[in-house]
Give the backbone structure.
Amino acid sequence: MPKTKPVIGVLALQGDVREHAAMLEKAGARALPVRRERELSEVDGLVLPGGESTTMSRLLETFELLDPLRARLAEGLPAFGSCAGMILLARQALDGRQDQHQLDALDVVVRRNAFGRQVDSFEEDLDVEGLEGGPLHAVFIRAPWVEKAGAGVRVLARVPRTEAAGAAADRIVAIRQGAVLATAFHPELTGDERVHRLFVGIVQET
Ligand code: GLN
């Protein structure tokens, strides 16, 4: 029997919702925007897009999604966070706001806007563990990096040591812990759906 298409939600409070939905469809899933608790209860996995983690944290409260989302993550809901999504999933964010909520689904400490204030955006080809077909072109936009990762966290990619990378060389920018995946960059923007395929695979396995 062919596997049924997993239904993957995209948290639709802010950010690159349409782009993630398009990539998920391309990668073999059915994408569903999630703004309500009922929608959250219908999905097999959830993408948390980039945007502004402080704003998304506030909107999670406004839409009464914070506690239901925490509960589903604690039950093992597969999740993929890019950029601000990675920040939200982390247990701690440095250079965040005092009142910013953490979903605590990843045993990592991230630093917001880590690539420096001048460097609004930065692009680099990355070798990502688990992706076949060569390096992935990664676009970083006011991106975080992972400053500390617990023993249960698998590092999938680091910034290579190039001239452009400068002080960001070797920083951790893609991780996986169980069914939770996160990238500091925006794989929804480059037309290469391999990261989304990896996530769809995680959802199908789970
Ligand atoms: N700097 C943003 C934050 O702190 C993240 C940027 C992004 O998602 N592109 O939430």
In short: The radius of gyration is 16 Å.
